[in-house]
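[Discussion] Sanity-checking designs against the backbone

I'm trying to build intuition for which residues belong where. Below is a C-alpha cell string of 147 positions. I'd appreciate it if someone posts a full sequence so I can compare it with mine line by line.
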C-alpha cells in the first residue's frame, strides 16, 4: 500500500487552500521544503500543556505539512522524508521536547514506514515562545524519488 492510501486510511484529507503570504511548500529540484506549520493548540509545554497534548499538537502540525506537500505535488506516493524540525513552545526547565515531536515522527512512520521512506533525521528544540502562541511548529524536507 502506498503512502497516499495509508494517509487516507488514517483519516487525512487534502483540502484545497488559497495561496498565502508565503509559500507553504517550495520545490527545489527533487526536494520539497515545507514552511513551518503551527498547531491549532495554543500554550506552553511544562506550564499549561502536558506531553500528551504536545504530542497531539505535533501530529496536527505534520498533518498540515503533508497537506501542503500534497498540494504541491498531488500525491504522497513516491516521497521520502529527509528531515523534520520540531519547535516546542516550552518553559525553561521543560526537557521532553523530543517526546512531543514524536507526534510528528510517529505519523510519518505510519504513513511512509519506519524502516523505509519515513526513516528521517530530526531536531526537536525548545523555544521561549513561537509566533502567535502555538504549542508546536513543525517543518519538514521531503525527497521526490525518481520512478
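Best answer:
Here's mine. Compare freely.
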Amino acid at each position: 500500500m502506498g503512502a497516499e492510501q495509508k494517509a487516507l486510511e488514517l483519516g487525512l484529507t487534502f483540502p484545497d487552500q488559497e495561496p498565502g503570504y508565503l509559500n507553504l511548500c517550495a520545490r527545489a529540484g527533487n526536494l520539497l521544503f515545507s514552511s513551518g506549520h503551527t498547531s491549532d493548540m495554543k500554550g506552553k509545554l511544562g506550564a499549561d500543556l502536558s506531553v500528551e497534548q504536545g504530542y497531539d499538537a505535533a501530529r496536527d502540525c505534520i498533518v498540515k505539512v503533508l497537506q501542503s506537500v500534497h498540494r504541491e505535488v498531488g500525491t504522497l506516493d513516491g516521497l521520502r522524508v529527509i528531515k523534520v524540525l520540531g519547535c516546542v513552545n516550552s518553559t525553561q526547565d521543560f526537557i521532553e521536547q523530543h517526546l512531543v515531536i514524536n507526534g510528528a515522527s510517529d505519523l510519518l512512520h505510519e504513513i511512509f514506514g519506519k524502516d523505509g521512506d519515513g526513516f528521517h533525521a530530526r531536531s526537536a528544540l525548545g523555544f521561549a515562545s513561537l509566533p502567535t502562541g502555538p504549542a508546536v511548529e513543525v517543518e519538514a524536507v521531503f525527497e521526490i524519488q525518481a520512478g
